[in-house]
Amino acid sequence: MGMDLYPSAEDAPDFSVNGYGWLQIMSYGVGLVIGAHIGSEPGQYFYCGESPNPFFNDGHEVSESDALVMARCARTARLRGIAVNDFDEDSQIANLLDRFANFAEKSGGFTIW
Fold this sequence. Notes:
Low-confidence stretches: none
Strand content: 15-25%
Number of helices: 3
Distance between the termini: 10 Å
Number of domains: 1
Largest sheet: 4 strands, antiparallel
Structural class: alpha+beta
Mean pLDDT: 91
Radius of gyration: 13 Å
Number of strands: 6
Helix content: 25-40%
């Protein structure tokens, strides 16, 4: 199951990621802004908010201000991961965090489907 993120800004491109990639983004704390984080056990997640849940592709809306904070979190997670040798600068996760940050900054907010 993939996640498709549709921006509110008309001139921003969509962002698609597979379910595992979305969980990777969330695991670096990016989802804390919207009350979402993965748990310590496989398949475990936490969401402190109202439906729809951002871990399911059912229309969760992210405001423009939250999208900008999520972008900053993704950039910080990328830099931290590289600095402490969690991953290399050209790794898949570094690229994923960077692509998500670029999307979130330009999105004007987005909806998760």
